[in-house]
Amino acid sequence: MSHFFLDGLLWLRKIVLFLLVTLILLGLGIYFAANSPFVIKKIMASFAPDYNISYDTIEGNFLQGITIKNPRFKGEKLANHIQLKWNPNTLLKHTITINTLQIKDANVTAIEQLTQTFTSDKNSTQDENKNDFDYALRVNHVDISLKPFTYDGIKVSKAMLKTKHLKYKKNNLEIEGLDFAVDSNITKISIRGNFKNRVISLEDLSLKDVNISAIEQHFLKEKNSTKKEVKKENNHNIWMPKQINIKNVETNILSMTYKNMFIKDAYLKAKHLAIDTTPFVLNNIDNVVFGLESNISNIYLKGKMKKQILSLDDVRLNDVNISAVQRLLVKDDNKTTKHSNPTTQAPKSLPKWVKIKHIETNILATKYGPLEIKKSNLKAKNLIFDVKNLMLKKAKVDLNASTNLSELSYKGSIKNNHLLGEAKLLPKKELYTLYGLPLRKKAIHKIVVDINASKDTIIADIKTKGKKILEGKNRTFNVDVDNLFSHLDYNIHTHVLTIDTKALLTTPYAKKVDFTNHFKKSDTYSYRGELKAKKLKGIEKKLVQPLENLLVRYNGDSKSIHVILSSKQLKGNLDSKDFKTGILHLETLSPVAVNSFVALPEKL
Question: How many CB atoms lie within 10 A of CB 64?
Fold first, then answer.
């Protein structure tokens, strides 16, 4: 009995050993099959033809990775070669780990056709109803390059994507060591950086040779094409960054034409760009350098922006072509202009304040009717502008201009949109000739104007003086303007202009002649004033006394004038309805011995 029991145990031992050996051999067979290129080739040879896929060679195995040279779909090359290395051990942890993914010279057109073969409406519907992908994905090295291709009118001559590490798990995407570059007929893009926790952190962003004309044509084509229904995306979009940080930004555009504006060159450089995307807010940007060269102006600015305060150290607008600017700003008749609501709050992307340390601009020679501006240079410093309220809080201004009619210099300041300062005008001969003024060229050395201007009114105080202001070397009569002061007030909304003038004059016949005048222009114009001379000189003594305390009052409009004259012994008036003819009335205030003025016949 015991012998039988021992024999049973011996047979059981043999069976167990046989099963163990069988399992080991089976495991080794599977391992060697998985590591065998022969098995890979057999599998690919069996299934690839069913999907119109062919290739030159395939190397490697399932465990260490495979390399496929010249894969093709329906005879069209998919890529020069594809290499895939992965780590199957991490599958036990629900993680797909790819150590290397390399695709060289991928053919976008062929890959798109291959993808469409494996896609159907049924599969798409099923995919939409599936739960989220339950595996984590890790890719440690990606190196993909594309062959030149054209997509929707965009010609891509070069495209490359590299990453050091890529992780995806439950709607969380991380990319480390991103290196992306595309050369196309629209622009050349180069990006280096990382993406983590929906924050893009870039070392460099380069957009070179941006072709605005090509982009405009592309989007115009998109606009005119039939609109496709756009599916609403999930609010939790792992691809949408909530913040963008860029250390270095550089871009430039190719030459282009817009209306009558030809842009020869434009560029932008900046550092430490920080942007929030929801909502869009530009939080910070340092070392901004912008330049533009065009037929309208050459622009250069340098500055930074932080906490919605744009601070510019230097702004230059050189060679401004005013005529070209005016043509550029002319509205197209066929386009409807939408007027913005002035009460609408400014977007958060705009700066709240603009501060400029120094700004300088000059304009090219231009002509407005009889006025020719030969040169003009404007400098300003320490500007502070409130963007929300559209108010220039303060600035120092220095303007110098030369025209065919006068020389102009102005120094002043701006405070709360009010222009304050002193302007000096030096009239030229052309000014007198243009308006038929019989004034001597160098009679008036300068005209000083104190200005106070706002969005509602322009107020100016004008001061000047001059010697022998009337033209003519052999004149027996001339006028000296010992002092002239005019106060000008112009209402921008009602277009009403008033000028009050006081002057002290000297003539060969009277000193210290007081002159006052009030001028008003609205739809029509009117004026009134008076002329006072206490004592005359340079005339016959017998005429001096009757004309003492001479007072001339006048008023009129564009068509008529009424004059009242009075003196110690005379009074009279003059009325004219057309400035061509008039009625003069003159009488004495008391009996006058006529023979004391003129010689009478002996009988009288």
Answer: 13
User: Is the confidence at residue 236, as pLDDT, over 70?
Assistant: no
User: What six digits make up the tokens of 317?
Assistant: 């607008």
Residue 7 has pLDDT above 60, yes or no: no
Q: Which residues touch 347 (CB under 8 Å, ≥6 apart)?
A: 280
DSSP string, 131-198: PPP-SEEEES-EEEEE--EEETTEEEEEEEEEESEEEEETTEEEEEEEEEEEEESS-EEEEEEEEETT
With bands split at pLDDT 50, 70 and 90, how would you rate the model's confidence at 597? low
Q: What is the pLDDT of residues 537-567, one digit of tens each?
A: 877 776 777 778 889 999 999 889 999 999 8
**CA 322 centroid distance within chain:** 18
- pLDDT for the residue numbered 13: 47
CA distances (Å), origin 238, targets 115, 173, 197 = 23, 6, 9
Cβ-contact 402, 423 below 8 angstroms: no
Task: Name the residue among 462, 470, 536, 538 with its Cα closest to residue 503.
Answer: 462
Among the listed residues 206, 144, 140, the one whose alpha carbon sits nearest the alpha carbon of residue 177? 140
Give residues with Cβ within 8 angstroms of 516, minimum separation 6: 500, 501, 502, 503, 529, 530
As a whole number of angstroms, the distance between CA 225 and CA 257 comes to 25
pLDDT tens digits for range 473-484: 666 788 889 999
Q: Which of 555, 547, 553, 563 lies closest to 597 in space, CA to CA? A: 547
User: If you write DSSP's letter for every residue of 302-331 in order, what string do you get?
Assistant: EEEEETTEEEEEEEEEEEE-HHHHHHHHPP
| C-alpha dist (Å) from residue 528 to 182, 384, 436, 500 | 76, 43, 22, 10
Question: Could you give the percent of the chain with pLDDT greater than 90?
Answer: 38
Handedness of CA 453, 456, 461, 466 (dihedral sign): positive
DSSP-derived letter for residue 536 is B
Gap between the Cα atoms of 45 and 293, Å rounded: 62
| Residue ranges per structural domain of the chain | 14-115+134-185, 534-603
The three-point CA angle 377-382-386 to 5° equals: 105
CA distance 495 to 492: 5
What whole-number percentage of the chain has pLDDT above 70?
79
> Which of 375, 377, 373 has its CA nearest to residue 361?
377
Taking alpha carbons only, the member of 324, 412, 419 closest to residue 364 is 324
Q: What is the pTM of this model?
A: 0.72
CB 498 within 8 A of CB 489: yes
Which H/E stretch holds residue 39? helix 37-47
